[in-house]
């Protein structure tokens, strides 16, 4: 008969594994930062499995996916010509958010909330561009 600590350890390990696999943030990290959209049934289903087995961790998984935006499917429209996007760059290399918002609204017909506090902005470095074989241009 297995020892009590071995059973407890197995239950804890199983609960951690099920919660880690039920989180859309781990499966689709590129979706983080989306504000709204259609809910991905795969991610919602995996989170629901987490609720069936462990209510509190399952609800936490749903909360994380909604908070990060990883539960939403990507939109069908996302392409804008790079030449058009360069018009939103100022002479100092900074992005003019009002101009970018106008370009996106004109090109893809979406009124994106670029002033939303949940918007995640990433800043890169010259080394990161060089790693992808790109040059810094402003």
TrEMBL record:
This is Polyribonucleotide nucleotidyltransferase. GO terms for molecular function: transferase activity. Keywords: Membrane, Transferase, Transmembrane, Transmembrane helix. The chain crosses the membrane at residues 7-28, 48-73. It comes from the Bacteria. The lineage of its organism: Bacteria, Pseudomonadati, Pseudomonadota, Gammaproteobacteria, Pseudomonadales.
């Amino acid at each position: 008969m297995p020892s009590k600590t071995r059973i407890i350890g197995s239950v804890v390990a199983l609960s951690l594994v099920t919660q880690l696999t039920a989180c859309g943030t781990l499966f689709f990290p590129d979706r983080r930062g989306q504000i709204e959209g259609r809910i991905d049934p795969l991610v919602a289903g995996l989170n629901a499995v987490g609720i069936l087995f462990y209510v509190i961790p399952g609800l936490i998984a749903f909360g994380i996916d909604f908070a990060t935006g990883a539960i939403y499917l990507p939109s069908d429209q996302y392409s804008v010509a790079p030449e058009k996007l360069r018009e939103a760059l100022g002479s100092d290399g900074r992005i003019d958010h009002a101009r970018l918002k106008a370009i996106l609204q004109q090109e893809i017909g979406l009124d994106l909330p670029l002033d939303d506090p949940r918007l995640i902005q990433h800043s890169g470095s010259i080394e990161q561009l060089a790693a992808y074989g790109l040059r810094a241009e402003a």
